[in-house]
Amino acid sequence: MKRVAALTGLLTVLMLTNGCKSIPRHEANWTSVEVGMTKEQVLELLGEPMGKSVPEEETGSGGESDPTRAAAAGIAGLILGDDDYWEYFSIETKGLSEEEIAAKLFEHIFSPLDQSYVVYFDQNGKVNKLRLPLKK
Predict the structure, then answer these.
(1) pTM
(2) Is 63 within the bounds of a domain?
(3) What pLDDT, on the 0 to 100 scale, is given for residue 81?
(4) Going edge to edge, which strands form the sheet with 84-88?
(5) Which domain, by its residues, includes 122?
(6) Tens digits of per-residue pLDDT, 15-41?
């Protein structure tokens, strides 16, 4: 559900920034990302990712782990695989309807978009693989 809310927010941002032609932060700093970096270092360089494979562990109000959310994350891991990745992308939205934009964003719910820059992490939260966009 959070992923749908994030996609809705992203849709709004994409529509508002459609006329901007500056190079996105993730593209400008991509060559600085290296295998072995921590998630914090990647955040510092690239900013907040547009998509994540598995949500960060969430806790209840008392700080204890929420078993329902942990179970949901486990099921998502079974469906989506064990790859922990963050994706960064820019989608050309000029001339597209809201429905067409939403359809493009929906494509990446189960795997990264072909247009995405993807950072993969190991179990320790360190970069173990990088993927350039497969197509622009």
Answers:
(1) 0.62
(2) no
(3) 54
(4) 51-52, 84-88, 117-121, 127-131
(5) 2-56+68-131
(6) 444 455 688 999 999 999 999 999 999
